[in-house]
Amino acid sequence: MQLPYLPNTDADRQAMLRDIGVESADELFHDVPAKFLNVPFHLPAPLSELELKAELSHLAQRNASLNDYACFLGAGFYHHFIPSVVRHITGRSEFYTAYTPYQPEASQGTLQAIYEYQSLICQLTGMEVSNAGMYDGSTATAEAALMACRITQKGKIAVLSTVNPAYREVVGTYLSGRSIPLVNVNADVKGLPADCAALIVQQPNYFGYFEDLSSCVKKAHESGALLIVIADPISLGMFKSPGEYGADIAVAEGQALGNPVGFGGPGLGIFACRKDYLRQMPGRIVGRTVDAEGKTGYVLTLTTREQFIRRERATSNITTNESLVALAATVYLAAMGRQGLRRVAELCYHKAHYAAEAIARLKGYSLAFNQPFFKEFVVRCPVSPEQINKALFKAKIIGGLDISHTIENAMLFCVTEMNSRQEIDRLVKVLGAFQP
Amino acid sequence: MRPYYLLPDISQPDKTACTLPPPDVPLAELPPADLLRADLPLPEVSEVDLVRYFTNLSQLNYAVDTGFYPLGSCTMKYNPKWHEDVANLDGFTALHPLQSAESVQGALKLMVELQNYLSEITGMDATSLAPMAGAQGEFANMLMIRACLAARGEKRTKVLVPDTAHGTNPATAAMCGYEVSTLPSDAHGNVDMKKLDAMMDDSVAALTLTMPTTLGLFDPQIEDISRIVHERGGLLCGDGANLNSILGKVKFGDLGFDCVQLNLHKTFSTPHGGGGPGSGPVCVKSILKDYLPTPWAIRTGQGYEFIAPPRSIGRLGAGYGNFGAMVKAYAYIRTLGAEGLKAVSEDAVTSANYIKEKLKSTYHLPYDRTCMHEVVLSGKRQKMKGIKALDIAKRLLDYGFHPPTMYFPLVVEEALMIEPTETESKATIDAFIEAMRAIAREVEEKPELLHSAPHITPVRRLDEATAARKPDLRWQMKSQR
Q1: CA-to-CA distance for A29 and A20, rounded, in angstroms?
Q2: Which domain holds residue B247?
Q3: Would you say the ipTM is above 0.90?
């Protein structure tokens, strides 16, 4: 019987072994000390496609899908609409079964798509250059911090305390490698601590409201530090880009651009910066050039920054990134276009404000901040968010994030274009049942 | 049809490929104008134009689904289609990572079981699925090693990396603040034991070792290597890039490795996506278990949940790793079972040795011994005729094959590193061997064909020097306002 995924027959195997000059495949493992070879492996017995599909469907059904529940949860991962065209393009196996485009003559599709991606990201973020993407928004932030240290030759990073705590943790992990301290600062801090390579700011911040980026830029630059802005790419359909504020490096989680929330991965680390810093950038970059006949073509370029050339002096160890997710973002941005992305952002904005106002009118509920916000906002609740979320879940609603460890009885809500008015009204109704 | 245009070239005002509903809520007051952007200069294209553009682009790619892709050290095996279907089930893709654990028990169960399978496959005590690619897995391993040594009160400053190693190994060690010392190989392509003996002192935190090595060779001295490293207080850090050659037959843990990172996008058949997403789980011995990245999925009496290991190196990403890849790897392991996995490595190794035997009289074989899942040939005979490994690689494209990895490992002159994988049939491999022989004949008879290759690809050789000297990295669209 033919084994799954193995096209050769026993006759093929025998013929190959004969030509090699051995009796069995085991003889080819003679360099392995015998006691280590063919040890037992305790794994479940193999199953067929039919059986496993049933089993995996069953496992999938044990999860509460955002398509069956109304979702008001964000905090870095966002449930946005994905036009079908995105999946149909990324599902072309010429894209998804190709390797990293190291052989440009055989990879023009991927390379040209990355060139489009870099261009679209620059347009969106208002920055001058973009790489081909990092793992996720948090590692892009961490790599930006390391890049800032290389550029400024300074040994400390400041981060606003309103930055997503998970991002701060990831930056901390990356900086720990080189023993670079990460200092939390408040937005009203007068100046940065000495020797800071960069200030990291999130716009809109973790709590949903907008930071005073102009003052952050000033504060950073006055102390010789770079400004790293973590942006929400959907918000950029409507709101000022990091580039317009004078940011030095812009990073973002790109998942929202045409990719499912996917239980948190794969995501896409958007990474763009000023042209001056191009040669300190981590990750792959695609450039346009010409071939031997003068025809336009695309190649991986400036590779002397990368690990396979520069080894221990590389700008990062990153190799595999999230190319297919970046392709989805490319198709998404092209499908939405100038007006579509603005419309998505406006839908989020108006629905979120409708929800926030309705919740704030409920007895015992109030908004924790009164600054302008985009699609997320913090609500102080009359009872513990845990209690509320249990009730919401029963009503087929995934509620906001419980941030009561930071602000008493507070919940961080997110509203996107996916939430209908009826869903929002249902949310408000369940919340209204809890009185102080 | 090759698209010579870019998105802005097919952009026209008011076109779009997506319709959206009007707002169903009263409009809110807009925020202060200084927060708003004046314009978003993105292309505007219709759906049909968009689909044709990207479909035409896709057709310029060589991919596993279009042909043989023997790219050494990349394990470009076939990616079963139904894995994509299950990974795209609503109950797996439409999940928020911050949902309550009770509402994602199916996903957590899958993660915990996959962790258990990978621990069993590698002979380790615990596995974390958090790293999003192999290089990040290496980073996690190196941080865990450093933390473990620090807890022992040791501050070691160096990491040994063989001269055959992938560039990620030294790059990762440097990211963790270590000085990199290059460990030479001996004449057989194994670790030079005399040099190891001399270099392995109490300043060395770890030896990072790919096994089998990047020369496609299993180092028979592995027990001695492990003994020397451990006796002198270091750890043995594995790079699992080449697991495909020992899958279901040999366990890294048995060989003495303290940790190893895997690449689900190589060995476990999750597609490469043109450069990602990958997934780089780390599998560790019990001494490193408390240091695993946060969060970590575990099974408790009540079900499944995420915890922070007590001495965790911290978070590697905002989520839990690339969950989509985990579903596909799970499907792969469950389809094959222990016997199937063993057949995978046996077939992979058989195919590589078959290629080696068939081509070793035509191309120089730098290490004339049994290889594992890949064979490294050298184009140095052809080099004497003025033909480079690069020319041979490019000419292969004309024969309809993706080229092998070139110029790696660095210790082999004009290296051509061929990894056939187990999913290629004998017929395909025979055709590849024939092409390699035909190219060797062309080196003698029609060398100009190689100098100018490839001829039938969408583009000819590209001017990479100009690309780097005058970077053109994006188009620009002007604001309409």
Answers
A1: 13
A2: 82-335
A3: yes
